[in-house]
Amino acid sequence: MQHILSVRELTKIYQGVNRELTVLDHVSFDIARGEVVSIVGPSGSGKTTLLGLCAGLDAPSSGQVVLTGRDISQLSEDDKAQVRNENVGFIFQNFQLLPTLTALENVMIPLELQGKAKGAAAIAKDLLDRVGLGDRHDHYPMQLSGGEQQRVSLARAFSNSPKVLFADEPTGNLDEDTGHVVEQLLFDLNKEQGTTLIIVTHNPDLAAKTDRVIRLKGGKVVSDVLNEKVAR
Ligand SMILES: Nc1ncnc2c1ncn2[C@@H]1O[C@H](COP(=O)(O)OP(=O)(O)O)[C@@H](O)[C@H]1O
Ligand SMILES: [Mg+2]
Which of 9, 28, 61, 111 is the most buried (most CB within 10 A)? Predict the structure, then answer.
């Protein structure tokens, strides 16, 4: 079976002032197309670093990431950007919306990067409607609450119909109700488009609704288990 993501002996070492910090230590796993996976573990265990490496946003110290059949450690920055634009959606822990662009313009970015500027506004409007922000198209990030910004970042991550969606604590800053809305939007995307979801979360209820839970500790995978009878 061809996996949508294969991670092999992935290691990330940061060079400190006096010593090296090994943040990821020979991490390996495979993720199947359409799988819904959560990555859990204490803060500082390397979850965000792992997500960034898997999405090609950052380069490993050693090891390999094969994403949609391409070894991204071997690609130039331009080719990596292309693989990302065509395949990957990313929801950042701190949203990372561009402050000088409206909600609508933020959601249009991935489409414009794909050369689909024509029609981008209509698609972006639909997506904002879907996340319940139909009346906030023209608002700038600073005019939106944390939960609203998170939903804009979700709409942006969906806009290029990614094959793989990486979400870094997508419900972490949200109240329970908004968290459930965001959760359901992610699961719907998986159901409707077969999108592979890789979700970093501290929320055990959310992790319990995923097919599989990979647990990190001190930069190593300490467990990798399938959940039985997942209802979502
Ligand atoms: N750019 C960086 N330079 C040095 N250390 C970093 C950098 N980014 C993250 N770290 C360190 O790597 C460790 C793992 O961080 P992170 O991946 O953000 O963990 P998590 O998301 O699980 O909380 C932490 O100790 C953090 O301080
Ligand atoms: Mg993190």
Answer: 111
